[in-house]
Design goal:
The chain is mainly beta and 142 residues long. The protein has one helix at residues 24-31, and strands at 36-40, 46-47, 62-66, 70-79, 92-99, 104-109, 122-129, 135-140. The protein has two domains: 19-66, no CATH class; 68-142, OB fold (Dihydrolipoamide Acetyltransferase, E2P). Helices cover 6% and strands 35% of the residues. The longest helix is centred in the first third of the chain and has 8 residues, at 24-31. The N and C termini lie far apart (46 Å). Bound molecules: zinc ion. Zinc ion binds next to loops.
Length: 142
């Protein structure tokens, strides 16, 4: 493939700070090993990742639901050509799982052999702290 004429731009590194004051309970929960979804007090919709404002009825009243973590994998992809920010990681798997509570979650799927990952298999959503100290969540074997 012939390359187009181009100039090299400067490297851009972006690390925005995201305010979390209205979803603080979610982040505190991850630190405690719990995963919370938000439930709208207006219309009852469950959301994950949690939201502070309901996109359905616009209510700002939410409550926190400590989810079971039980999930069924609906789809997945193995990431071999990794983005810059994960280039130090080995090939990894990203999956969408449907929680028992009904919401779908996009997260890393770890602890399985890649060849064992199948649509319809059971997994569990758990809290995790990255080596950099960031609180997050992931799917693991049930
Ligand atoms: Zn609502």
């Amino acid at each position: 493939m012939a390359s187009m004429p181009s100039i090299k731009s400067r490297e851009i590194r972006i690390a925005p700070e995201v305010p979390i004051n209205r979803t603080l309970r979610f982040w505190e929960g991850l630190d405690e090993g719990r995963v919370y979804a938000s439930k709208c007090k207006g219309c009852g919709q469950l959301r994950f990742p949690p939201v502070a404002d309901c996109p359905s009825c616009l209510s700002q009243e939410i409550e926190w639901v400590d989810i079971s973590g039980e999930a069924e994998i609906e789809t997945f992809t193995h990431v071999v050509a990794k983005p810059e920010s994960f280039k130090q990681d080995r090939a990894y798997t990203i999956a969408i799982g449907k929680l028992k509570e009904g919401v779908k979650v996009l997260a890393w799927l770890v602890g399985f052999k890649m060849t064992d990952v199948k649509i319809g298999m059971k997994a569990r959503l758990t809290a995790r702290t990255t080596p950099e100290g960031t609180s997050t969540y992931q799917f693991v074997p049930p």
